[in-house]
Every structure is written in structure tokens, then in C-alpha cells.
Amino acid sequence: DTGVSQDPRHKITKRGQNVTFRCDPISEHNRLYWYRQTLGQGPEFLTYFQNEAQLEKSRLLSDRFSAERPKGSFSTLEIQRTEQGDSAMYLCASSFPGIVEQFFGPGTRLTVL
Amino acid sequence: GQNIDQPTEMTATEGAIVQINCTYQTSGFNGLFWYQQHAGEAPTFLSYNVLDGLEEKGRFSSFLSRSKGYSYLLLKELQMKDSASYLCAVSGGGNKLTFGTGTQLKVEL
Description:
The complex is a heterodimer.
Chain A: E1 5-7, E2 10-13, E3 19-24, E4 31-37, E5 44-50, E6 53-57, E7 65-68, E8 75-79, E9 88-95, E10 103-104, E11 108-112
Parallel strand pairs in A: 2-11
Antiparallel strand pairs in A: 1-3, 3-8, 4-5, 4-9, 5-6, 7-8, 9-10, 9-11
Chain B: E1 3-5, E2 9-13, E3 18-25, E4 32-37, E5 44-49, E6 53-57, E7 60-65, E8 70-75, E9 84-91, E10 97-99, E11 103-108
Parallel strand pairs in B: 2-11
Antiparallel strand pairs in B: 1-3, 3-8, 4-5, 4-9, 6-7, 7-8, 9-10, 9-11
């Protein structure tokens, strides 16, 4: 399968714990995006990378959130000291240079107890 | 800032035509997207408009008027599998997408 993959698909954690999600974009896609989606809402932009450079972060992204894309391929999103309000679907998307269409991965559903 | 409005829910009959409207106010505009999202799944791309007019792709068509900040998605020959959420999204700087809340479409027999 050559689509965007995300791992894990589901994560249940206790409040205060740290969690890390991984996204593998489609090969040769240089842009990678993270979105968060809560029930009944559309996805909200969190951050995006062009190659290894993080070019923009949303104001939604508190200091507890950090994202990396160290070699310009896969990316990780870490949430420290999770809160119940962090419960959501975390979506990753990637796009090819010069192409506006973003291809989404299946998402990681986070539940914070 | 960005503001995108679309109806929360719509119901239509199998075999019919349905039009889902979207209005937007954005500070940057690189195009408007429609995505389909089934419950618990990732959004999948349906259409993209950057110029005014109608884009047709099979049973799906999308229209854009940049001067009016308005788009619609037209679904023809509705099938039960078309029951899903339809997301209107505007591409801004960096091609990041700003999404509406989605329109939950229910197709009935």
C-alpha cells in the first residue's frame, strides 16, 4: 500500500501521560500536515512541514504539543501531559510538490481517560 | 481570519440529486476543496476548484464563485453509499486547509 500510514490507529491513555504518534507520508511527498478532528467537527490545522522544516504552527498547538520530521520523511507528533480535551482523531496528510491535493492517512484516535 | 459555513445535515432520496452549499470568508485563497468522510475514516478527495465555474467528475460536480465566496457540491444519482459527511475546505497560505464543520448527508430509500 503506497498511501499515507499512521501508527497507532488507536491510543488510550491516562491523563498526564505522554503519547507519540507517527505518520509515514506517500513517498516523494515533500509537504506533511497534521490536523486534529473532534466529533462533529471538520479537521483543524495543527502544523505542517516542507521537507524537514516546520513552516507553520497553529495557535491551537500549545506548548505540550511538538512535531518533528527529522529526515524529511516520516513525522512524529508528541503530546506531553495529556488532558481529556486532547481526545480527538489526529490526522496526517501529505502532498506532492506543486500539487495542492492533500492525501489523508487513516488517523490516530486518541482517548484520554 | 477564516470562516466557512455549510449546513449541518441534509437528507435526500436514493436516485435523486442533492446540492450542498458552502460559503467562505478567508484572508488567503488558493482554491476550494470538497472531501468526503465516512464515519471513523479519513477524508477522501472529491474535487478542487480554483477558478470560477463548474467542475464535473462523474456523479459529482463542484461550482465556485470567488466574488461571492460561494461553492456548492452537486451529487447526482444518489446511492446509499453516498451517506457520509461532506467537508468544504479552503486552501490558504502554505496550502494548509481550513475546513467547515461538514454536512452530514443521509440517503434514504
